[in-house]
């Protein structure tokens, strides 16, 4: 009888462990899902093309970008947009932004919105 009791205890201990592992697997995102979310602005379609990035940025977004991305400096925002407007490729824009603003999280919602405006100019 003691053997049966020990077996029941061992079985009870194993079951929660398996349940915990199954729950952890369901909670953990798949590698492909994580990769698909990185820099979503690269694959999402921007709006209609524009000749100047400023026309693709609303007043509210401009204030958000200046405060969140351009260190609260409207001149830095303006100068950066002017430089981007004359660039010809997205790779050129990214190199410039990564050099000038290494602190940017390229997966953040604010950067997403800014890059979608940039992509309306540079496709």
Give a verbal description of the structure.
This protein is mostly helical and 123 residues long. It has 2 domains: 2-36; 39-121, no CATH class. The protein has helices at 2-27, 31-37, 59-68, 74-85, 90-100, 109-121. It starts with a helix and ends with a helix.
Poorly predicted parts: none
Mean pLDDT: 80
Structural class: mainly alpha
Radius of gyration: 25 Å
For the record, give the distance between the C-alpha atoms at the N and C termini, rounded to a whole number: 75 Å
The geometry reads as: globular
The amount of helix comes to: 55-70%
Indicate how many domains the architecture comprises. Answer: 2
- The topology string of helices and strands comes to HHHHHH
Largest sheet: none
> What is the strand tally?
0
Q: β content, as a range?
A: under 5%
DSSP summary: helix tally? 6
Region (Disordered): 1-25
């Amino acid at each position: 009888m003691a053997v049966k009791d020990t077996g029941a205890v061992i079985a009870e201990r194993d079951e929660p462990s398996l349940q915990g592992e199954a729950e952890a697997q369901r909670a953990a995102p798949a590698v492909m899902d994580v990769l698909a979310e990185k820099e979503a602005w690269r694959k999402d379609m921007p709006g209609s093309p524009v000749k100047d990035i400023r026309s693709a940025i609303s007043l509210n977004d401009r204030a958000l970008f200046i405060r969140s991305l351009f260190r609260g400096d409207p001149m830095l925002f303006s100068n950066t947009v002017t430089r981007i407007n004359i660039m010809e490729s997205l790779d050129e824009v990214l190199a410039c932004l990564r050099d000038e603003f290494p602190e940017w999280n390229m997966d953040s919602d604010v950067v997403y919105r800014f890059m979608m405006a940039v992509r309306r100019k540079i496709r």
